[in-house]
Structures are given as structure tokens and as C-alpha cells.
Specification:
The chain is α/β, with parallel strands linked by helices. It has a five-stranded mixed sheet, sandwiched between helices. Strand 6 and strand 7 form a beta hairpin. It is globular and about 45 Å long. The termini are far apart.
């Protein structure tokens, strides 16, 4: 039977213009959470104004849990180190978010564990020929638009992100991996049999990162899991 996927993403409230470490200005607030399902054309969205408060955040977390119970594999992109960490902190549902984190697929984290680094979502979409992110908006700009009342633009951006991620996920499964163009113009390939959950990715051997000046460690993404 074909796997069922539920790809999720969220947008923040706080203006992080010029901020390198977003966590240094936490709490960040959440404006919306979007989910794209592999067996439906309709996206699921939780949103609130001026922000998605504690009750709304808990509804979103329970919604993700219900999708997992219904047999969907939860999927995100840098969701281990950001989205689920943020939901855990701001929903006050850390225990459940940690359980979801261990058993979900973070495409970015899978590639990081396999390679020691990972390209961005838009770079991968370009390399794979799948739909790309909305131009002119990014996660750092979304709070500005939200504050101006352009809430639908932010929601549309978030929905497009999950749809782009889902299309990339399915294309990679069909191909048996991903490919992209590096900054130097070279085509890079990363092959695998299937996407790995966080728990499965952690079982991969550490890749050789001796060529990197300051390689990231896995704790960068999952340190909050041990808090």
C-alpha cells in the first residue's frame, strides 16, 4: 500500500529582520500552521490573529497527532530543529511534540545525517524540477506581512511551502534520491531507498566532515529533545 504523507510547516509572528539566531529572541509566536496531505488536494490550516494562541497551538499539535494515528507519516523540512521545537515550547506540549519528532520524517535532517550538510528546500526543488517556493516571500518576511494585515498572503505562502515539500518528497521517492546544483555549478546526487524518520536517520553512521571548517553536529537540531 502506498504511504500516506502529511507535510507540515508553520510561520512565525516575531520580526526577525537581521537576527541570525532566531531562538535568541524567543518566544517567536506562530501565525499559522499548514498541512498538505498526499491523498487530498485540500490543505489543512490552523491560524489565528494576532497570533495562534495556546489553545490554537494545542489544536494544531493534536491535529498532527491525529494524522499520525490515522496512518499518515508526518513530514517536514528542518522540522526537527525548528517547527516541532517551536511547537513544543509555545504549546506547552513538549512530551507529545518530542514523540512526534522521533517518529516523523525531517527531509533536511535525513540529508544532514547522510551527508553532513543539506541544501535548502528551494535548491532541492529547482534541482528536482518540482514546484518551488513563492517568490518574494520567506520565513523572515512573513511576520512583516502578517503585521500589515496581509494574512492570506502568509497563509498562501505557508501552504505553497508544504505543497512544494510534498512534491519534492514524492519525486525523490520515485527517483530514489535527490539531486541539485551546488553553488559551484556542479550537479550533486544523494541516493537512498526511502526517506528516513528522525529515529532511523540517527542510526546512520556519521559522514566524513573533515573537509568542513565548522561542521554542524546532530545536537544542533535535536538538543531540545533532551531538555
Amino acid at each position: 500500500m502506498t504511504n500516506k504523507y502529511a507535510v507540515f510547516d508553520l510561520e512565525i509572528i516575531k520580526d526577525v529582520t537581521g537576527v541570525t539566531d532566531w531562538w535568541s529572541v524567543a518566544p517567536l509566536g506562530v501565525s499559522c500552521v499548514a498541512v498538505a496531505l498526499s491523498d487530498s488536494d485540500n490543505a489543512v490550516v490552523w491560524s489565528g490573529y494576532p497570533e495562534l494562541g495556546n489553545v490554537g497551538l494545542q489544536c494544531a499539535v493534536y491535529g498532527l497527532e491525529n494524522l499520525a494515528i490515522e496512518g499518515y507519516t508526518l513530514v517536514g523540512f528542518n522540522s526537527l530543529g525548528f517547527d516541532l521545537r517551536l511547537l513544543a515550547s509555545e504549546s506547552k506540549m513538549s512530551h507529545l511534540c518530542k514523540a512526534l519528532a522521533r517518529n516523523h520524517v525531517d527531509m533536511f535532517f535525513h540529508l544532514f545525517c547522510q551527508l553532513g550538510y543539506a541544501p535548502g528546500l528551494d535548491t532541492l526543488c529547482a534541482g528536482m524540477g518540482t514546484p518551488r517556493k513563492v517568490k518574494g516571500i520567506d520565513g523572515a518576511k512573513a511576520p512583516e506581512l502578517w503585521a500589515k494585515g496581509e494574512r492570506q498572503a502568509v497563509i498562501d505562502y505557508c501552504v505553497q511551502d508544504v505543497r512544494s515539500t510534498l512534491a519534492l518528497l514524492l519525486a525523490a521517492e520515485e527517483r530514489g534520491g535527490v539531486q541539485w546544483t551546488s553553488k559551484s555549478g556542479k550537479t550533486v546526487n544523494c541516493d537512498f531507498d526511502h526517506w528516513l524518520t528522525v529515529a532511523q536517520a540517527l542510526s546512520l553512521p556519521d559522514p566524513d566532515t573533515s573537509w568542513m571548517k565548522e561542521p554542524w553536529r546532530r545536537e544542533k537540531f535535536m538538543g531540545w529533545m533532551t531538555d
